[in-house]
Amino acid sequence: MHAQQRQRTQERLAQGGLTRALFADIHSIKWLTGFNPPIQLGPSFFVGGPPLLWYDNGTFTLIVLDGHADSVAAFGAQPDCTLVTYEGYTIQKPITGGPNLSAVLRDVVGSSAGGGPVGVEARSLTFLLHDVINDVLGGVTSSTIDDWLAPLRMVKTAEEIVKLRDNFALSDLGHRVARQVIKPGLREIDIWAEIHGSIQREVGERVPLGNDCVVGYRQNNIGGWPGDLLVREDDSVIVDLSTVRHGYWSDSCATYYATKPGEAQSAAHRMIEDALAFAISLVRPGVQANEIDRKVRGFIEARGYPVYPHHTGHGVGVTGHEEPRIVPYNEVPLAAGMVILLEPGTYVPGAWGVRLEDALLVTEDGAEVLTTHEKGMMG
Amino acid sequence: MHAQQRQRTQERLAQGGLTRALFADIHSIKWLTGFNPPIQLGPSFFVGGPPLLWYDNGTFTLIVLDGHADSVAAFGAQPDCTLVTYEGYTIQKPITGGPNLSAVLRDVVGSSAGGGPVGVEARSLTFLLHDVINDVLGGVTSSTIDDWLAPLRMVKTAEEIVKLRDNFALSDLGHRVARQVIKPGLREIDIWAEIHGSIQREVGERVPLGNDCVVGYRQNNIGGWPGDLLVREDDSVIVDLSTVRHGYWSDSCATYYATKPGEAQSAAHRMIEDALAFAISLVRPGVQANEIDRKVRGFIEARGYPVYPHHTGHGVGVTGHEEPRIVPYNEVPLAAGMVILLEPGTYVPGAWGVRLEDALLVTEDGAEVLTTHEKGMMG
Q1: How far is CA B365 from CA A70, B335, B343, in A?
Q2: What is the CATH number assigned to the segment(s) A158-369?
Q3: The whole model's pTM is what?
Q4: Is a pLDDT exceeding 80 seen at residue B309?
């Protein structure tokens, strides 16, 4: 699992002159190994530090809390990656996750025969653990590699695209439910609970769900968690959904109406449908992210509508928001295999808003739309 | 908000000879400030490191991601605690949360006029941030304070007990729903979705929900996430619920039946009811945690049932599992103001299980039961 990710990473480290590295960012480690611990209730109370992935001349060692060992699927069959755990909770003695993790890291790093600097994810590695590698390797020089994987993560592997498609099918389901249930008198949270329950019943397990479910008359009606605000007769409701399954995120948005939308809303909705179609038409390998951003903003501005204050889109994978970011400064060119979101919108604060969002797989000659949810007007 | 926590901490640091400290553990910081960022979807993609709380001679400075600023309730009125944010995501330039956090920490620590060592939460502090304080304060000695707050967190303040009571009311609601809906043919996830939806509708917002929803015929039927396993005609179903609201956890368990329970199950259920009542009768200030643990295990053993392999109970607060742990090694004496769970059970792997759990506030002369969910047999 995720062998291509490790191969790309090994090449990147070699280019940077590194034969050893310690990864400590949860997203790096998910991407490199498929490690997928539950996230719904926040961090485990028993960890002694971040999960770690030690790279040493072609082989990887993943070090995680014993309670998270079953979150590493199919680990028996990884010739280049070994799993090691440390003890977290036991009823037999006081909890010492921190020292236990340090001790395991000491053993793992101690078997390193190489020399030279060690790459470290410095934003996530704790200094106690850094001291361990320093100590074991005799005052080794550490070199920061925090942002090295972000560009590699942009182009998805076939294995990742399968996981992403599974998630887009779930957010599509969520949108079918939203379209069916939204009506005056429901609250945002009622709609949300219906969507979330349907998704979890579909797959037979808990699924984390983001992002927004907001009525149009909110002052900030761009996004936000669902609350106890009632859907009014003439309301728009923006529903923006991410599911997180297999450690991967989906993302998609549509705008629904409590009843038949008014003139202004209808016109804006049609305009945003056109803006999204226009945005999709721009996607192909080689086009720069900020070119898409500029053109889509221009499209909306030319039609006399307020331009959305957020990004035009972003990549998605082990996070819900990653490179390539479709934003004004970003000159990164799209490439086949990237999976991106495009999400133009227009908002009248305190009145109504419209946003529509599709996910796209960049192909050799354009894009495949991965989301199938209906985005046309209701009513 | 949480001023008493900061007062206790200041005293503890002074006892340890420290007038400056840097907290980096999310649970410490929640407890010290009321900081309560969303947890449902895992860590924010835009943080540059952990949230930080700098203590310097009587005043605290909380440093968090700008996107988390509204997760610090009522911060205007804290004379001893200031809020500072650093920039995370913007569409105007590349994301540099790490350097931004370092820069803010540099400013905050730079105003320190004191000398002497700095206490640090070494298991959570990243080494980049440790370098900042080292650098700004000129090679300061850092002293590890990772476990200093755990004993202070045991006795709850009046403010915390209000937050905990709110959560116990929600898990009580969840149990009412469970008791109502459980029947043959439903799956664990169906039951879960009903419970979770009801709780969220009740409060009008999203609420994270733990812990277990398992049918009796699972091989490991002690606990686990709900799956697509069907409730069978003669099944027991253990439902163990934690809600997380205001940053505080509830916890409570009951065992339900698909139909009228059989002889053996009925007898075991009654025995565990007695065991829980016995456990509660032991709670008073001064009794050692492991005395309760030993006596409750003995109660079950004396009746010829398999003794649960897990803890007898634990504390609860900003985490769902904290001191005082009611386990064999723990000699800590209970004290008025502690909030603990007691959860005896007995399990026949692959067949059925029973666990019942109540929450207790230790009072001057005994205990107040904080949970009101019905735990008697169904059918």
Answers
A1: 44, 10, 21
A2: 3.90.230.10
A3: 0.96
A4: yes
